[in-house]
């Protein structure tokens, strides 16, 4: 076995060793349950430092490929991780059964456009007769390009924002690569990076986006990509300003390793975001892939997101899809085109955007009056500081209120505990909820004496 591993290693760096062992695991040459040679024996066989092998083993363990069992040794694990171990699963594992579930991060169903009118208007037109037609309806592509924050070299449509990020990750990230992410970050992205064996490197942020100084320092690790949410950041609600985007682009352009970084932007809130659409691609179009989702603004069942950026990258995504789903339904694309151009729907989405803003403002005002620290700059989520995450969640659950724990969003611990609340689902009863939240958060507050019975569930 020692010779098998040594023979598979072409690059004797930690990343190269981890990649070689990962290939052996996936091909079955190192089956599940196999006990690996010791770090020292591998190092001796390869003629390198044991520290390098230890680093490779840590990367493999983080990716879930191997597991060290103390003195018993290090073993190959069964591929895949149980769902309950995913960060994403930890967000909504318990709250769904509660009367008031504000853990989900989904839009208010009643604020979404009715798709029936669009379906009637597109009729029974035949949108494709060939597998070889372009993946995007020409008129939809034209409308999307008009809305894009920079002129993309190429644009395609996929089955939602996470599908887009998954496909971009497959094209850009390799095992052992360092990828820069916001801290806090969206848990499914962290799960995705871990599943491909990438190392997530946290970059601090504030209300205007990533901090330029933090980005500059993080570039020293030689990252392959930078993942960020330009608007309505989930969970904090922060939106990147044009000034901040320009400064971040300058940091990337001015750093010796910045030119090799692909920026992946997830504009998941889309048309319900209050902030202006902005992208680092306005300054670095060759290094930026921008994803625009329509799930929160026009309906999750549309399952559509657009991806635009450098031709080589977008073409690689589109070509790889030809070996799988081929293309996203052109019928659904026609529905989306209708919704984006129908004046009544445009007004309805605009009204939803204003309603979400009003709900954020009402909840923030109520919490501020009770000395609870919270941020909700845009979108449908609110990031609330609490004295103890578990205590807060248990306290809220006792009132029938479900929220998401903050820990799964953190790449590394922040300066205190948090919870995430989908404030976009809270339709009224802001003072009632603020009283309960203040108590759960451990903040000083004034009790109104009202109960949660006036809260209306916004998840249906």
Automatic annotation (TrEMBL):
Enumerate the GO terms in the molecular function aspect. Answer: DNA binding; DNA-binding transcription factor activity; pyridoxal phosphate binding
Domain HTH gntR-type per the UniProt entry, residue ranges? 11-79
Answer whether the UniProt record assigns the keyword Transcription regulation to this protein. yes
Keywords, alphabetical: DNA-binding, Pyridoxal phosphate, Transcription, Transcription regulation
Which Pfam family is one of those matched by this entry? Answer: Aminotran_1_2
Give the matching Gene3D superfamilies.
Type I PLP-dependent aspartate aminotransferase-like (Major domain) (3.40.640.10), Winged helix-like DNA-binding domain superfamily/Winged helix DNA-binding domain (1.10.10.10)
Does Transcription regulation show up as a keyword for this record? yes
Q: Which family does it belong to?
A: In the C-terminal section; belongs to the class-I pyridoxal-phosphate-dependent aminotransferase family.
Q: What is this protein called?
A: DNA-binding transcriptional MocR family regulator
Task: Give the species this sequence originates from.
Answer: Catenuloplanes atrovinosus
């Amino acid at each position: 076995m020692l010779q098998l591993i040594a023979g598979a290693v072409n690059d004797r760096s930690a990343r190269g060793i981890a990649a070689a062992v990962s290939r052996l695991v996936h091909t079955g040459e190192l089956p599940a349950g196999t006990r690996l040679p010791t770090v020292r024996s591998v190092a001796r066989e390869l003629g390198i430092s044991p520290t390098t092998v230890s680093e490779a083993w840590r990367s493999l363990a983080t990716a879930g490929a191997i597991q060290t069992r103390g003195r018993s040794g290090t073993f190959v694990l069964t591929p895949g991780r149980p769902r309950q171990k995913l960060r994403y699963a930890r967000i909504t594992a318990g709250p769904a059964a509660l009367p008031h579930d504000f853990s989900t991060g989904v839009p208010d169903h009643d604020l979404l456009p009715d798709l029936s009118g669009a379906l009637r208007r597109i009729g029974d037109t035949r949108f494709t007769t060939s597998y070889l037609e372009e993946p995007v309806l020409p008129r939809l592509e034209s409308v999307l390009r008009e809305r894009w924050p920079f002129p993309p070299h190429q644009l395609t449509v996929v089955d939602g924002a996470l599908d887009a990020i998954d496909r971009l990750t497959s094209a850009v990230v390799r095992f052992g690569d360092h990828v820069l992410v916001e801290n806090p970050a969206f848990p499914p992205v962290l799960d995705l990076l871990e599943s491909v064996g990438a190392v997530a490197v946290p970059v601090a942020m504030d209300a205007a986006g990533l901090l330029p100084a933090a980005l500059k320092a993080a570039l020293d690790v030689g990252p392959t990509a930078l993942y960020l949410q330009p608007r309505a950041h989930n969970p904090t609600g922060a939106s990147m300003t044009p000034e901040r985007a320009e400064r971040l682009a300058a940091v990337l352009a001015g750093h010796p390793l910045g030119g090799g970084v692909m920026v992946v932007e997830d504009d998941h809130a889309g048309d319900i975001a209050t902030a202006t659409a902005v992208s680092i691609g306005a300054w670095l179009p060759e290094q930026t892939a921008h994803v625009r989702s329509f799930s929160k603004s026009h309906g999750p069942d549309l399952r559509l997101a657009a991806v635009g950026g450098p031709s080589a990258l977008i073409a690689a995504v589109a070509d790889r899809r030809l070996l799988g789903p081929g293309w996203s339904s052109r019928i659904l694309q026609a529905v989306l085109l209708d919704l984006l151009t129908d004046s009544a729907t445009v007004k309805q989405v605009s009204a939803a955007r204003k309603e979400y803003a009003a709900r954020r403002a009402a909840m923030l005002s109520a919490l501020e009056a009770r000395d609870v620290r919270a941020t909700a700059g845009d979108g449908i989520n609110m990031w609330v500081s609490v004295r103890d995450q578990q205590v807060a969640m248990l306290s809220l659950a006792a009132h029938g209120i479900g929220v998401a724990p903050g820990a799964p969003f953190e790449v590394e611990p922040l300066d205190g505990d948090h919870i995430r609340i989908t404030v976009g689902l809270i339709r009224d009863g802001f003072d009632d909820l603020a009283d309960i939240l203040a108590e759960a958060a451990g903040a000083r507050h004034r009790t109104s004496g009202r109960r949660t019975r006036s809260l209306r569930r916004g998840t249906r």
